Amino acid sequence: MSDISYLERQNEAQFGDFVALLKPRVMSLVVFTAFVGLVVAPVPVHPFVAFTAILFIALGGGASGALNMWYDADIDRVMRRTKGRPIPAGRITEGEALGFGLALAGISCVMLALASNLFSGLFLAFTIFFYAVVYTMWLKRSTPQNIVIGGAAGAFPPMIGWAVATGSISLESIAMFAIIFLWTPPHFWSLALFMKEDYSNAGVPMLTVTHGRRVTRLQILIYTLVLAPVAIGTAFTSIGGPVYLAVALALNALFIKGAVGLWRRDEEVALDDRYAREKRFFYFSLLYLFGHFAALLAEAGLKYFELGGW
């Protein structure tokens, strides 16, 4: 076998490459928050309908990821964090990714509408459009507020889950949206703090690139302080309760403490020490979001038990 044919065989797309196009880690967040939105809704959903709805919401999230990777292939080739993705690595062509993403988008939206209701299918279609077009194609490369406005796409899944059950939007679904929407800037800006060079090299106007680390850390603190009362206040809606309140109070106290620590940081500290704290804040932000939605799930379980569901 020649060297060329061997390399060609090595670069052929595998099943795992198409899975990677779906951004499975992001998809897991979409699935979990959509599932919580569906479960905490006041209208019961048949288990089969719930399963198929979550499956198609997951496929919709994967379609968004594939379309994002298709359009951002030029950026991904430059950034260390993304250059190993299937398109930059040459295992999948941009055309294949585009076709894959569009096919999944169409299938997921139509099937969700058929499995649950038309409103949820249209809502999923809007979410995919918002992430792929509004965020990826427009905001990401044009404004340092890219992640603020574009973060709405990642905040829609619990609203879609709620819509699957109720066919509508309510204060509770908006509260779940607001938690993720306000959480997104501190989460991604803390990542950008220790990935600043990657974004700079790729020409992405992330806040760390356009305004520097000091302003970014201040913005993280501001959004964290705005997020806390929204997250805690959700305890006093119909989907909240004492368990959620206790979890929210603890997590927000720790989140604020971490944001204050970042804001007060001395720029002259060693880079390794600075990035260690910023990485801790980034990873804790994942626990923060999971904790809030897990607590909402626990409240739904307790209410179900109190009503004699088990």
TrEMBL record:
<feature type="transmembrane region" description="Helical">
    <location>
        <begin position="26"/>
        <end position="43"/>
    </location>
</feature>
<feature type="transmembrane region" description="Helical">
    <location>
        <begin position="92"/>
        <end position="115"/>
    </location>
</feature>
<comment type="subunit">
    <text>Interacts with CtaA.</text>
</comment>
<feature type="transmembrane region" description="Helical">
    <location>
        <begin position="121"/>
        <end position="139"/>
    </location>
</feature>
<feature type="transmembrane region" description="Helical">
    <location>
        <begin position="215"/>
        <end position="236"/>
    </location>
</feature>
<feature type="transmembrane region" description="Helical">
    <location>
        <begin position="281"/>
        <end position="302"/>
    </location>
</feature>
<dbReference type="GO" id="GO:0048034">
    <property type="term" value="P:heme O biosynthetic process"/>
</dbReference>
<feature type="transmembrane region" description="Helical">
    <location>
        <begin position="242"/>
        <end position="260"/>
    </location>
</feature>
<keyword id="KW-0350">Heme biosynthesis</keyword>
<dbReference type="Pfam" id="PF01040">
    <property type="entry name" value="UbiA"/>
</dbReference>
<dbReference type="GO" id="GO:0005886">
    <property type="term" value="C:plasma membrane"/>
</dbReference>
<dbReference type="InterPro" id="IPR030470">
    <property type="entry name" value="UbiA_prenylTrfase_CS"/>
</dbReference>
<protein>
    <recommendedName>
        <fullName>Protoheme IX farnesyltransferase</fullName>
        <ecNumber>2.5.1.141</ecNumber>
    </recommendedName>
</protein>
<keyword id="KW-0812">Transmembrane</keyword>
<keyword id="KW-0808">Transferase</keyword>
<feature type="transmembrane region" description="Helical">
    <location>
        <begin position="174"/>
        <end position="194"/>
    </location>
</feature>
<dbReference type="InterPro" id="IPR006369">
    <property type="entry name" value="Protohaem_IX_farnesylTrfase"/>
</dbReference>
<dbReference type="GO" id="GO:0008495">
    <property type="term" value="F:protoheme IX farnesyltransferase activity"/>
</dbReference>
<feature type="transmembrane region" description="Helical">
    <location>
        <begin position="49"/>
        <end position="71"/>
    </location>
</feature>
<comment type="pathway">
    <text>Porphyrin-containing compound metabolism; heme O biosynthesis; heme O from protoheme: step 1/1.</text>
</comment>
<dbReference type="InterPro" id="IPR000537">
    <property type="entry name" value="UbiA_prenyltransferase"/>
</dbReference>
<keyword id="KW-1133">Transmembrane helix</keyword>
<feature type="transmembrane region" description="Helical">
    <location>
        <begin position="146"/>
        <end position="168"/>
    </location>
</feature>
<comment type="similarity">
    <text>Belongs to the UbiA prenyltransferase family. Protoheme IX farnesyltransferase subfamily.</text>
</comment>
<dbReference type="InterPro" id="IPR044878">
    <property type="entry name" value="UbiA_sf"/>
</dbReference>
<keyword id="KW-1003">Cell membrane</keyword>
<comment type="function">
    <text>Converts heme B (protoheme IX) to heme O by substitution of the vinyl group on carbon 2 of heme B porphyrin ring with a hydroxyethyl farnesyl side group.</text>
</comment>
<keyword id="KW-0472">Membrane</keyword>
